[in-house]
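Lab notebook, design round three. We kept the backbone fixed and only want residue identities now. Task for the bench partner: fill in a sequence for the structure below.
Input structure tokens:
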């Protein structure tokens, strides 16, 4: 586990693809339990350790996950996420070139619980939620493109679904139309940067995830 930022109220870790943030039906050890064990050992805490899960990243996605170490921070962070006060930037690698170098995508997403998949529509549908993001092309190799994405709403599989709807499924994302999977089962989507006002100190916190240890990620970003 890699800690990117920590203070008395907040801990931000760099999630590896394949890790789950919170326990689910797989029974696999979630990142939240790993962070709790780290806090217990690091600070020799007796009894149960408090850790609040504020948001999640899909299992095949890597990058920044923020947890609350106090109930005060949890309450405020929950409010901040709900009200769009946490600014999240993602990087995604796609095979296809986007139609424009930069743009704004707006769709109505309908979530299918059974398939664990979302579907994008250009017009409002019953049960649909509006999804908005901005993207720009920031790097490329002969075969792949690197997009920077600013998430303006937080919907189920939003980036994966909206980029696929644009004709640019994320590398390795079979569920949303990629031709082949990545060898390690990941998809090439990284929660790269996070900026927010600290829930207690009120300072502006900006953190950045390291790039995955993978040749393509390193070369597409110019090494």
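Proposed sequence:
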């Amino acid at each position: 586990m890699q800690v990117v930022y920590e203070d008395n109220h907040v801990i931000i870790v760099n999630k590896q693809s394949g890790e789950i943030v919170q326990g689910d039906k797989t029974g696999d050890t979630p990142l939240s339990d790993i962070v709790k064990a780290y806090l217990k050992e690091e600070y020799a805490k007796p009894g149960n350790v408090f850790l609040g899960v504020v948001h999640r990243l899909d299992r095949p996605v890597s990058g920044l996950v923020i947890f609350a170490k106090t109930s005060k921070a949890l309450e405020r962070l929950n409010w901040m996420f709900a009200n769009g006060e946490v600014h999240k930037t993602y990087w995604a690698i796609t095979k296809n070139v986007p139609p424009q170098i930069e743009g704004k995508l707006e769709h109505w997403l309908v979530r299918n619980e059974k398939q664990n998949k979302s579907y994008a529509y250009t017009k409002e549908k019953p049960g649909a939620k509006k999804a908005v993001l901005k993207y720009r092309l920031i790097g490329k190799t002969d075969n792949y493109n690197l997009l920077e994405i600013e998430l303006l709403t937080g919907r189920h599989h939003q980036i994966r679904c909206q980029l696929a709807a644009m004709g640019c499924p994320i590398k390795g994302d079979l569920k949303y139309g990629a031709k082949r999977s990545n060898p390690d089962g990941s998809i090439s989507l990284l929660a790269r940067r996070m900026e927010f006002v600290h829930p207690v100190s009120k300072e502006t916190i900006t953190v950045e995830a390291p790039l995955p240890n993978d040749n393509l990620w390193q070369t597409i970003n110019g090494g």
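Keep this in mind before ordering anything: The chain has a mean pLDDT of 95.
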